[in-house]
Design a protein that fits this description.
CATH class of the largest domain: Alpha Beta
Distance between the termini: 18 Å
CATH topology of the largest domain: Rossmann fold
Order of helices and strands: EHEEEHEEHEHEEHHEHEHEHHE
Low-confidence stretches: 55-59, 250-258
Mean pLDDT: 89
Number of strands: 13
CATH architecture of the largest domain: 3-Layer(aba) Sandwich
Structural class: alpha/beta
Number of helices: 10
Strand content: 15-25%
Radius of gyration: 18 Å
Largest sheet: 11 strands, mixed
């Protein structure tokens, strides 16, 4: 996690996004790079009818300057050094003066170890969904999704939402730097919320063989959705990071029928490390 990309917009979760990125950068001695992300010119806020997450928003040219001012002010206030040394050290940079659209995020994110974004919401003042989708589906990189309030710590007490899927196996590998530093790691399986694949105990065993002190736990849904059961367990354990694959089912199927990814994107109160 030596390089962190922070797509920057003026939304209500941006202070928490910057703080979460700073916490991760402090942990891994990382370089943080910001840029102003925007929707396609001329688009306006619309809301996905099923998930109720904001899809796009109007953009004005001065938004790029506002985004850079927000980023720079935060970094100065926290005395983060400016620069992009090689190898990376705890520092920040803003090399692009102009804004770039969501598609650029999906491409440029491929040369970073982590992308940090806010959790999408229903209101125009909240983070939009397209940057997250571009990061998840186009960058090939993990995304740290941050709620409106950042926690005091990230990665000390981690819940891995194991469902046996290829996507979750990928996500576990991306999360390995966090998992190896964690004080506590719980591999959670929700009954009825899995695909054909290895068990939660087998996943925990794989982590233990890689130096992670992981324990496996299985819970019954008890009338809850899989996503609700995952979030309830994360809250009960006091976790400060959830590791969860994105869209094991197709996105369209989740929009229509629901799914754990949709539930977590709509309701998570802790940071979520996701990958597809």
């Amino acid at each position: 996690m030596k390089t962190i990309l922070i797509p920057t917009e003026d939304h209500d979760a941006m202070p928490a996004v910057l703080e979460a990125a700073r916490l991760v950068a402090r942990t891994f001695d990382s370089y943080m790079e910001g840029f102003a992300v925007r929707p396609a010119i001329g688009t306006y806020v619309t809301v996905e009818p099923v998930s109720s997450l904001a899809l796009s928003g109007a953009f004005e040219e001065d938004t790029a300057r506002q985004a850079q001012d927000l980023f720079d002010k935060f970094m100065r206030a926290h005395e983060v050094p400016r620069g992009a040394s090689e190898p990376a050290a705890f520092s920040c940079g803003w090399p692009r003066a102009e804004a770039a659209d969501d598609a650029f995020l999906g491409s440029y994110g491929r040369v970073f170890d982590l992308i940090v974004l806010g959790r999408p919401g229903r209101e125009p003042s909240q983070p939009r969904m397209p940057p997250l989708e571009a990061a998840l589906f186009e960058s090939g990189r993990p995304v740290l999704i941050v709620p409106r309030t950042a926690p005091a710590t990230i990665g000390r007490n981690i819940l891995v939402a194991w469902n046996g899927s290829t996507e979750q196996a990928h996500t576990n590998i991306f999360a390995m730097p966090f998992l190896r530093k964690a004080e506590k790691v719980t591999v959670l399986t929700v009954e009825g919320g899995t695909t054909p694949g290895p068990s939660g105990e087998q996943a925990a065993q794989h982590l233990r063989r890689n130096g992670v002190a992981a324990v496996a736990v299985t819970v019954a849904p008890d009338g809850r959705s899989t996503g609700e059961a995952i979030l309830d367990k994360a809250h009960a354990l006091g976790c400060d990071l959830l590791v969860k694959s994105a869209y094991t089912q197709s996105r369209l199927r989740q929009m229509i029928f629901g799914g754990a990814t949709r539930d977590i994107l709509a309701n998570a109160s802790l940071p979520v490390l996701m990958a597809h």
